[in-house]
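Lab notebook, bench 4. The sequencing result for the construct came back, and we need a structural model before the next group meeting so we can plan mutations. Quick request posted to the team channel:

Model the 3D structure of this chain.
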Amino acid sequence: MTEPMDRRKFLKRSGLIIGVGAVAPTVLAACGDDEPAATTAAAPATTQAPATTAAMAEETPDTTAAMEETTTTAMMADAPAEFESITLAQVAGWISLDSNRTTGGALSTGQHTFEGLLIKLPDRSLIPGLATEMPRQVDDLTYRVKIRTDRTFSDGTPIKASDIVYGYDRLDPERELGSPFTQYITFIESIDIIADDELQINLNQRTPEDVLFQRISAIKAYPEAVVEEMGGMDYSFSPTPSSGSMMVVAPFDTELNVFQRYDGYTGPQPLAAKDITYVAIPELASRIAQVEAGQAQILDGVSPQLYRAIEDSPNLNLGIARQTSFLEMIMMNTTKPPFDNQLVRQALMYSIDAQELIDIGLQGEGRIARSPLPPEDPRYIEPQQQYNFDPEKSKALLREAGYDPDNEPVQFQLGVVEWAYVYPQAPLFAQRMQDGGFDPLLLVDSIDARWVSDIMKPEGGGPARYDAWVATIGFEVFSYDADGLFRGWWSGWAENASFSTPGVPAKLDEFLNAALEEPDFDKQNELYAQANEILVTEAGAVPILFQPIAHAWNKSVAGYQMPQTLGMTLFGVHPSGE
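Done. Here's the predicted structure in token form:
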């Protein structure tokens, strides 16, 4: 088994790029330069690469067995061999260590640091965490759940029923600064303590269990007395003690954070690693290099162009989640020309060849998206409005909107996020949009720093400062259910986003709320379908394709469960002995 880098040196060398000599030639050659400069050139010709045949390297947990075997003693008996230390190299960093305040792949640390009534496994299934069993329904608006009384925070103090209720109370937008989870639990009126070992969940509207249980899994236990004494903001950057199997042991950093296993943890998901480091390294080549050399063990954000190279590496394993809801979409600024005109927005959608983006830009990986719901979702209904590549239809709509696309193509700036699994598609977008009567000026850049200044509507009024962006979003990190996948992008707060048009978020909310209240499953799905028709027809922010999610890990690691969403997990990971 490869020895990891000395911990003190690793901490000093945050963002380390390993020398060429330490990297397997096959992987290094395939990486190339994945730090693109901002691009303003038109698209060159592109040659199609053959589709990858990368094998699935997933280890799917036995969910049924996990549901049946919920006693701590039985699950702890199967705990794997220990790591002294393990390091995970991830594409993005943190804004907080508090599960209430962070988002994206950084939530993967939160699933180990904080625990709630239910735990979401890498395959999206749920098992009891602080609960002794799944919540049971009392009536349409009431659920009760038994909780464990033998669990402790990472300082050894008991986790009480009030600490779980406090985790819910912290999501009240009036209590602290905003949490991305707040909008997902609006149908929970309150959580009451019935006894030391029982809670009652009170709803303000009927909610299907597949939605409710997903949302409950986002409510974590927090040490009320400690958080109130420290203040919520201070605690979010130094969350000690915490309620999960992993505890914070070093000051918060946006790029590198150090944790330790909590040996007093007696829940259903123990960790094998004693010392855990998560380091943010945006460059894919650098992440691969560290894992290839054994200086980190697991990495995320692998682009399809590198699947084969990783499979050929003698030191790496590859895992691919293909049936994801990790959505690539395009946002158009509806607050100024040309995209303040719905016909122009629809024309742009007809000038996107999603299948070509998959075949060439993603090496044959990915799936066309017609909705925020993936096609295998039982609530998915094929929409009537579909944007298949049709440049003549695009030009006809532009003419109807008053433009002359044959003689004076519609000019605009197209931003494409710089992630390695997105920006290779940029020339393809530009080429096909030119065929459809547009003249895009490409910008490959980070969208993160531009979000408030460009994407959201200015507080003082006036148009937002961009034309269109291609970006990826994984709302599944918050909740994997139809209601959540729709609300995540197009509902609620979207009233203040530049891709929204007047009345649309409110109309979507009307359909989504009706779906929650509707007891008939098929009628629920019809309401979701109506919401989707509004979304794609209005064409302010439109799904293009579903991205695969791929991770790689050093062969010194065994038991890695490939998540179906963003972020890396350590549940079940142990040394392989290689």
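Residues 521-538 form the longest helix (18 residues).
Will bring this to the meeting.
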